[in-house]
Design brief:
Blueprint lengths: L11 E2 L3 E5 L5 H9 L17 H13 L3 E8 L5 E11 L4 E9 L7 H17 L4 E7 L3 H10 L2 E11 L5 E10 L3 H16 L2
Parallel strand pairs: 5-6
Antiparallel strand pairs: 1-2, 2-3, 3-4, 4-5, 6-8, 7-8
Length: about 200
């Protein structure tokens, strides 16, 4: 089923997680999730502090209204507990290309099926329903855990944008760019499904 592009709000449901269109009513849950691991203290990330979360949500919803972002709140399917956030961003309607980013999860659910299934759901919707030509991922050059996670998804490194952004601590960030293109999706999908079965259902 092909949906309109740019992507509108939609709920994506897997075995472990549910990606829900972000709403201001998720404020308290997102604040609790970000406190789990004090995620904003990682200098190479752009994770909001609990006291900045409401402003962060409002800005995400404004970008959604502008058609440049589709933010999701991530919840565990088992108990509906909010555990993080992710989004489609840098949406380019003319060539049907977008980025998956601004992703963070509570520390207690890291190294679990959560990230793998979230990426599977987002990529599947992008390629199979939105007919995207390419999906991009970006991260700080020094964010080694993120770089390894992106590579495990099957994304290929396109290059490094030097002096690309200013980090939360004021240092200048080099951004590593990865992508998965449309004809790679079937193999990437098979690998993600295998990872979920092999790692979490031994």
């Amino acid at each position: 089923m092909i949906h309109d592009y740019p992507p509108s709000s939609v709920t994506l449901t897997g075995s472990y997680v549910q990606l829900i269109p972000m709403d201001v009513s998720h404020l308290a849950g997102l604040q609790e999730a970000v406190k789990d691991g004090e995620l904003w203290k990682l200098w190479y990330t752009f994770v909001p502090k609990p006291e900045s979360m409401e402003k962060w949500i409002i800005k995400a919803l404004q970008e959604q209204d502008q058609g440049i972002s589709t933010p999701f709140t991530v919840a565990l399917k088992a108990d509906n507990r909010i555990i993080g956030s992710t989004r489609y961003m840098n949406i380019e309607p003319d060539i049907r290309r977008l980025e998956i980013g601004t992703t963070w999860y509570a520390a207690s659910v890291q190294r679990s099926p959560v990230n793998t299934e979230c990426k599977l759901l987002l990529l599947q919707h992008a390629f199979e329903n939105l007919n995207c030509l390419a999906v991009e991922f970006r991260t700080h050059r020094f964010n080694e855990p993120s770089r390894r996670a992106i590579s495990r998804l099957g994304a290929q490194q396109d290059g490094i944008l030097r002096n690309h952004r200013i980090s939360s601590d004021g240092t200048i960030r080099d951004t590593v760019v990865y992508s998965i293109i449309q004809n790679e999706w079937p193999s990437v999908k098979s690998n993600l499904l295998f990872m979920l079965r092999d790692k979490y259902h031994p």
